[in-house]
Design a protein that fits this description.
homodimer; 493 residues; alpha/beta; FAD/NAD(P)-binding domain; seven-stranded mixed β-sheet; five-stranded mixed β-sheet; 34% helix
């Protein structure tokens, strides 16, 4: 292959080889049509860049209001950082974002609207905490570590009370914003713990899945802003709601998988969704804007960019993205996170009175869940694998598999070592995500750069979970960001 | 314009509108030739991506060793983060990297080789320190701040002694690497100062020009690694050498401007340097590699990528950049830095016994220099404008101009308010740099991500000042990185 193909062809090929569900008719029909009208610039009121939950929600709202819309999605699938993995026999498991819970009304409403039901995360029985070579059973959300318990109890109270001082939509205006943003979360925790090493070990269990990183990677203010967002206008954010299963962020799951929300939303939008259409260039001239993709160009009145923030900075902008927008987005890398799944004939841990939820301090998959389908068959263990451990095993899949299964066995016994299947999803290898679950904001970024994040740039508006106040980094934040962006535009057009 | 132009045309136009010196004959000849051989894939032993000091040095070394080389430069000029501004009458001033000093043998040798002479930075007379509304004259490199003097003296000693424990080529192996990398430089300085606010104010004067940011933006380990690099194999790095003028990093300047080194090096390379050739895609197949640019494609045995690290992650890679490389480069945004110049008929401050070097705590241009040509005519004041102050004035050029001139006046008197000319260079607006002077590494990055930085990826090797040990972020580091990359390849081919 290679040398005589045009660049255009190269790029399309790259996109087509990406993993994921193939979307139906609408987009394929578009392909045929496109070939005959290759050079014609199409028109729409609004072009939405990115067919994840944020972009699709924005498109729904605009269509409801009677506007013409096109959604340009770079991959051969919709859903962004949600992704179903087909287990056969009509069953799936989610290798991306998957949990929903109370106060996440926007994703819950959207799921209802597109006909996706939910079921409670399996939480019957005891959880397991693995530390110092011992597995201990416990109930509730905080593991019973005698070395860290005093620190943790105080920490949770203090974090909630500080988070209450952080405005979710403008964390840089918090009274102590400068003080909290100039240090890492680790620095603050160290300075405020008696047994800092152990306490940090425990805290990092949650940072692993929440950020794909460690407490040393992120601004303390950013962490407080996220805690403030674990709620809604009526219910102030609390750490407990963020890390909890029953009544918390991991309360429920979606029948048919979280990606089904996007798939159904895209079906309803029909031909308005164009796959394999990475956007390469956005060109504004006065009150109109031209969006150039691998599947053609569209001229519109407004654009919503609903991609991960850093990828937005890689589009060719004419005129250039304002320096504040560019500098901010360049400082918003996503975390390094994988989800690792082991499939068993049955969820054997349930018979042992275990919920399948486990934490292992310094574990290869430090946070584990029972991720079986609603009927409990097959049995599925899922482990988050991120941050330091991800780096340790990067490029060594065989060793990683062994280590993850050993980690499952530490929590649930030797049966965990013999799955009938095992697979992983590494979000850093996704060309159009480049990590997960959410951007990591390092010290200095919230106060110095973040304020411009949602400020429109001429005809361009911004969506994506990173732009949300409540449930920033979650599916709910993606949906609310899409609603906000659509509302901004409807207020103008 | 717009709608019917191909993407290729768009991109070429974008590159052509960038500012900078137009390069001569060789490249123009290439344009004509290219048109007739548009689709033919050209061949070279090595393709170098980026025509800054790193890339040009690598190309020189490879050509000396008899290899065929092409240098693909995205802009319409060479020199990367060095750039001459034409003052007319055969005079220039540098709006990018400009200073050289002892232990920077590699850039000094290269300057000699391409016939660029140097002259001492003007340092006759006293410096000025502006704080609390008062301008105080002083000599030496450390301003005489009674509130911070005790802290600073101890700080300098301690930083040097800690830096001595950091291996320049592998800072992540320092005995205390984890401890130093999990906090911001500000956190460490606060914990180790009596009068922390004032001490930080002073420290940030230097961070402004060194990183285009603040002590809160960067990992403390990264700062120590940079200090360790202010030297060479015989002379351990010291903070004093980094911040000093006489005998330090600001010791000397280059006759004709620092960019002249690149311009002369490119002239010697002739047609091997292709301008307006942004590289869009790098495709490896076994032992060969194809590089696709806006000026055609080249097939080669090896590639050296010598761009700012984050821009390398934006190239379309096939196969994809290994996740560790991608995740690292996404965490290496450049600082936000401008240089502001005011031109006067003569350097009036010299008559007042002033060197033109000044520091103003919390100043809009906190670090100022006499940047006049060797003969002292015209008189030029230059101020660095970065970090917090840059953000404050972003998008407000008129206010910034006034504030910068007022800052000059605070140090040198009211004559500074009436320049005959004033201009700025904002490195964040440079499409192919996206900031300056160097990547800012936030906490966690050095220990968790940096180790892969110079590891080859198949046929691809890496250069650029960020990959250097000694004088990382300086012109000298760029040159040594190009030498290293060339040497790696010559050892293989």
């Amino acid at each position: 292959m290679t040398t005589n193909l045009s660049r255009r062809r190269f790029l399309a090929t790259g996109a087509l080889t990406a993993a994921g569900t193939v979307l139906p008719a609408a987009a394929d029909a578009k392909t045929t049509k496109k070939k005959t009208t290759k050079r014609r610039v199409k028109r729409a009121d609004v072009v939405v860049v990115g067919g994840g939950l944020a972009g699709l929600t924005a498109a729904r709202e605009l269509v409801k209001a009677g506007r013409s819309v096109v959604v340009l999605e770079a991959r051969d699938r919709v859903g962004g950082r949600t992704l179903n993995h087909d287990l056969g026999g009509g069953k799936i498991v989610e290798v991306g974002g998957q949990f929903v819970g109370p106060t996440q009304d926007r994703i819950l409403n959207l799921a209802d609207e597109v006909g996706v039901a939910r079921f409670p995360t399996y939480a019957t029985g005891e959880n397991v905490y693995v530390a110092d070579g011992r597995a201990t059973r416990y109930s509730g959300d905080i593991p019973p570590d005698p070395q860290a318990l005093a620190d943790l109890a105080l920490l949770v109270t203090r974090l909630d009370s500080m988070a209450a001082q952080v405005p979710v939509d403008a964390p840089w205006t918090a009274p102590s914003a400068a003080e909290w943003d100039r240090q890492t979360a680790e620095s603050w925790i160290r300075a405020n713990s008696v047994n800092a090493e152990r306490t940090l070990g425990l805290v990092n269990l949650f940072f692993d899945s929440a950020y794909g990183g460690k407490a040393s990677d992120v601004s303390f203010l950013y962490v407080l802003a996220q805690i403030a967002g674990f709620g809604d206008a009526q219910n102030p954010g609390t750490l407990e709601r963020g890390i909890g299963t029953k009544g918390g962020a991991q309360d429920s799951r979606l029948v048919g998988g979280s990606q089904l929300i996007s798939i159904n939303a895209a079906k309803a939008l029909g031909r308005r969704v164009v796959l394999n259409a990475p956007v390469r260039r956005i060109e504004q001239h006065g009150s109109s804007v031209t969006v150039v993709s691998d599947r053609g160009s569209w001229k519109a009145k407004r654009v919503i960019v609903a991609t991960p923030p850093q990828l937005a900075a890689e589009i060719e902008w004419a005129p250039l993205l304002p320096v504040q927008h560019d500098a901010l987005r360049r400082r918003m890398p996503l975390g390094t996170l994988m989800k690792c799944h082991a499939i068993y004939d049955e969820p054997f841990w349930r018979k042992d009175g275990l919920s399948g939820m486990a934490l292992k301090i310094d574990g290869v998959a430090p946070e584990m869940f029972d991720n079986s389908p609603p009927d409990g068959s097959p049995g599925i263990l899922m482990g988050f694998h991120g941050g330091h451990e991800w780096r340790l095993y990067a490029g060594r899949p065989e060793e990683r598999r062994k280590a993850v299964l050993a980690c499952f066995a530490d929590a649930f016994g030797p049966k965990a070592l013999e799955p009938r299947d095992y697979f992983e999803q590494d979000w850093t290898t996704e060309r159009w995500s480049r990590g997960g679950p959410v951007s990591q904001l390092s010290p200095g970024t919230v106060t110095e750069f973040l304020p411009v994040l949602t400020q429109p740039f001429g005809t361009v508006h911004w969506a994506g979970t990173e732009t949300a106040g409540y449930w920033n980094g979650y599916m709910d934040g993606a949906v609310s960001s899409g609603e906000r962006a659509a509302k901004e535009i409807l207020g103008e057009l």
